[in-house]
């Protein structure tokens, strides 16, 4: 059993690797070109007899533009494609690829781009087709850019029903599809349209979502049709990421902003009761002031028992907790700015 | 200079404001203060050595605020912003950023994006455009570098106030001998994006242009394409990159009392981080003929940090202190001219500039 942390940075993809103890980490990278920035990384487990699965990474370079990269040997060699990642001659230029999601079974891959739109690949990333229904939605004129642009920055696929999709447009709210992206419903805003983190909780009869937005942390137990404010007890309503426990749908992690004069303190906050109470987790995180951010995808969990939780900053630091957030250790202190983080487990 | 009586301040510009680090006389312990300047993107923070006034150059943000220069007359406690006179007027381009601010021959100068030079005779309250540079006939064809079309280096001759050099990206180096009224390009024998253009009349991605303080008629530059030395005021350049792990980098520095002792921070030309993830500063004792790697105390394992063009500084103490800040917010320092290093500050915002003020 190996644990891989797939790290998307402003300067290429890095991989950190550990055994199931998750105490000692070995770092490799940059594995892609260092001139590319990667906003999202994900892992498809091996199909059939393949020894390892495939790493996907979405991003762009100033010179090339957007593309999705993949590696079938855990990062040693890569290919990439942007074939079809376009709105055509009449549409706006696609500036960047922001988000990835695999449908159950791993045969369908989704990519979200800036300006916001959803693309699908059914040939493992080699070619892409635009799913036009989202951009054709009558609410599209209400979409507003954020400082990061107007990306489709989150894609969720239901783990057993691949027709059920959620996407987040920043700042344009959350959309839900029940037919694989052919039609979309604009879900009500929780605090506002500037959703930053969005996650689908495991298990349960009803679809439970958590979101972190500019306005607070919210939970929905009806697939996003209604939202409950669960920010009480957090030191700040605003943050970027939200990460969930791999099995316990009551447990969620957020990183509230701390803009104290002279620098805030780095801490992860955890709830064990679906947002009723929050506790601060900072054992092993830097004690002094930090002037840095944890971005939308800078927080991740693995699937082990106990669950590992991982924290990455825009100042290039990566921290790991092998015990669900109780204690933290530094994995890498001097990486380029980290944009995205995903944990994967590999059997061999 | 007796260090026990002096104050040493490290001035740090970041993507989220200016910071001041106050050191003890031994330069061992530092207290971080900031962010100042309303957390605006701060390209450069510098000191007027005559007065001890601090200046911070900040970028504009669309309709929210304009580019300008902040001044502090109380070592960073309070700051006052001015953009009076900083602009190209009606019909001219919008002034996006101030990249560099420095005292020179009794005035304060500021370098701007798009390329232009401004002068303040009243300590930064008001500014006047030094029009001669943009009036150069080549200006319509000036091309930006990856960071924009910026004037980032201002080099004066303390012995002759009429002489000045400016470094730009990517219109190259210009020189004036008449106090800024007329300018001539100075790029001969530097390499360029266009490899066939060896004359290189008006072009050149200068990353940093410096001049030693000890009165020797030498210029150095770290260019996008190599490190260079000129012994004739920039009229011709000689490449001195041999022996470095990369000819790419941004900052360059020179010892305050030894014009042959120069420093660069080579970076991987693609990723623009420390080559192979091993952090090092390189020093020459012979004006660039040979180079020595300095990495004692610097991280050597997956240290993919970058250092920007203003992110390196030397102080005037004895032995000289050397400092660099990274685009991931670490500040490293050496109290022995680069022989050994330690981490001075961490978790700052991305660092754009480092300067040191040694004040009595």
Number of domains of chain B: 1
Question: What is the fold named in CATH at topology level of chain B?
Answer: Methylamine Dehydrogenase, Chain H
User: In what range is the share of β-strand residues of chain A?
Assistant: 35-45%
CATH architecture of chain A: 7 Propeller
List unreliable stretches of 5+ residues of chain B. Answer: none
CATH homologous superfamily title of chain B: YVTN repeat-like/Quinoprotein amine dehydrogenase
Task: Pick out its properties.
A: 348 residues, mainly beta, Methylamine Dehydrogenase, Chain H, four-stranded antiparallel beta sheet, globular, B: 360 residues, 1 helix
Architecture overview:
- The complex is a heterodimer of chains A (348) and B (360).
- Chain A has 348 residues and is mainly beta.
- Chain A has one domain (27-293): YVTN repeat-like/Quinoprotein amine dehydrogenase (Methylamine Dehydrogenase, Chain H).
- Chain A is 0% helix and 42% strand.
- Chain A contains no helices and 28 strands.
- In chain A, a hairpin with a 6-residue loop joins strand 2 (12-19) and strand 3.
- Chain B has 360 residues and is mainly β.
- Chain B has one domain: YVTN repeat-like/Quinoprotein amine dehydrogenase (Methylamine Dehydrogenase, Chain H, 7 Propeller), CATH 2.130.10.10.
- Chain B is built from 1 helix and 28 strands.
- Chain B has one helix at 131-134; strands at 7-14, 17-23, 30-36, 42-47, 54-58, 68-72, 80-82, 97-104, 107-113, 116-120, 128-129, 150-156, 164-170, 172-176, 184-185, 204-210, 219-223, 226-230, 238-239, 249-255, 258-266, 281-284, 292-294, 312-314, 322-325, 331-334, 342-345, 351-359.
- Chain B is globular, with a radius of gyration of 19 Å.
- The model of chain B has no long low-confidence stretch (mean pLDDT 94).
- The chains are: A mainly beta (348), B mainly beta (360).
- The interface between A and B is medium-sized, with 28 and 30 residues.
């Amino acid at each position: 059993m190996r644990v891989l942390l797939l790290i998307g940075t402003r300067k290429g993809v890095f991989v950190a690797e550990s055994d199931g103890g998750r105490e000692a980490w070995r770092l490799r990278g940059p594995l892609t070109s260092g001139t590319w920035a990667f906003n999202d990384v994900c892992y498809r487990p091996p199909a059939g007899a393949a020894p390892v699965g495939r790493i996907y990474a979405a991003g762009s370079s100033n010179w090339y533009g957007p593309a999705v990269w993949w590696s079938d040997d855990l990062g040693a060699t890569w290919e990439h494609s942007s074939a079809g990642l376009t709105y055509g001659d009449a549409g706006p230029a696609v500036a960047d690829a922001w988000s990835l999601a695999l449908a159950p079974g791993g045969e369908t891959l989704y990519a979200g781009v800036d300006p916001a739109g959803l693309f699908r690949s059914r040939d493992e990333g080699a070619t892409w087709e635009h799913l036009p229904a989202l951009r054709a939605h009558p609410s599209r004129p209400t979409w507003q850019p954020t400082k990061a642009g107007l990306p489709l920055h989150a894609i969720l696929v239901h783990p057993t029903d691949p027709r059920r999709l959620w996407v987040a447009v920043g700042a344009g709210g959350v959309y839900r599809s029940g037919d694989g992206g052919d039609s979309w419903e604009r879900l009500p805003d929780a605090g506002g349209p500037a959703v930053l983190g969005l996650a689908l909780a495991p298990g349960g009869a009803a679809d439970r979502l958590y979101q972190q937005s500019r306005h607070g942390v919210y939970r929905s137990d009806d697939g996003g049709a209604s939202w409950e404010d669960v920010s009480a007890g957090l030191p700040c309503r605003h943050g970027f990421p939200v990460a969930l426990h791999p099995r316990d749908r009551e447990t969620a992690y957020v990183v509230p902003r701390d803009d104290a004069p002279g620098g805030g303190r780095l801490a992860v906050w955890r709830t064990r009761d679906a947002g009723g109470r929050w506790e601060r987790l900072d054992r092993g995180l830097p004690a002094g002031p930090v002037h840095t951010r944890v971005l939308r995808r800078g927080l991740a969990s693995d699937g082990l028992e106990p669950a590992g939780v991982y924290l990455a900053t825009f100042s290039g630091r990566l921290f790991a907790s092998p015990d669900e957030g109780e204690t933290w250790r530094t994995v890498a202190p001097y990486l380029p700015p980290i944009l995205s983080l995903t944990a994967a487990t590999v059997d061999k | 200079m007796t260090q026990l009586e002096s104050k040493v301040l490290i001035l740090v510009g970041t993507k989220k404001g200016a910071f001041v680090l106050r050191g003890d006389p031994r330069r061992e312990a530092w207290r971080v203060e900031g962010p100042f300047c309303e957390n605006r993107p701060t390209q450069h923070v510098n000191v007027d050595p005559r007065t001890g006034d601090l200046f911070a150059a900040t970028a504009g943000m669309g309709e929210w605020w304009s580019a300008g220069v902040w001044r502090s007359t109380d070592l960073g406690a309070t700051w006052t912003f001015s953009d009076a006179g900083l602009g190209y007027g009606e019909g001219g381009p919008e002034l996006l950023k101030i990249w560099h601010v420095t005292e020179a021959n009794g005035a304060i100068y500021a370098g701007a994006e798009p390329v232009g030079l401004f002068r303040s005779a009243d300590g930064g309250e008001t500014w006047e455009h030094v029009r001669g540079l943009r009036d150069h006939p080549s200006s319509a064809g000036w091309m930006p570098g990856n960071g924009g079309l910026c004037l980032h280096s201002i080099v004066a001759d303390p012995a002759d106030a009429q002489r000045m050099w400016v470094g730009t990206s990517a219109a190259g180096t210009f020189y004036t001998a008449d106090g800024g009224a007329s300018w001539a390009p100075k790029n001969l024998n530097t390499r360029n994006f266009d490899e066939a253009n060896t004359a290189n009349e008006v072009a050149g991605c200068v990353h940093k242009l410096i001049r030693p303080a000890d009165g020797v008629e030498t210029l150095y530059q770290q260019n996008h394409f190599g490190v260079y030395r000129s012994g004739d005021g920039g009229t011709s350049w000689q490449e001195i990159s041999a022996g470095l792990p990369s000819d790419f980098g941004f900052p360059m520095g020179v010892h305050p009392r030894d014009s042959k002792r120069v420093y660069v921070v080579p970076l991987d030309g693609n990723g623009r981080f420390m080559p192979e993830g091993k952090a090092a500063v390189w020093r020459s004792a012979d004006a660039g003929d040979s180079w020595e790697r300095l990495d004692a105390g610097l991280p050597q394992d997956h240290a993919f940090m970058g250092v920007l063009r203003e992110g390196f500084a030397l102080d005037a103490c004895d032995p000289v202190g050397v400092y660099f800040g990274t685009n991931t917010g670490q500040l490293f320092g050496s109290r022995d001219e680069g022989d050994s290093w330690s981490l001075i500050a961490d978790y700052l915002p991305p660092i754009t500039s480092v300067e040191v003020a040694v004040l009595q």
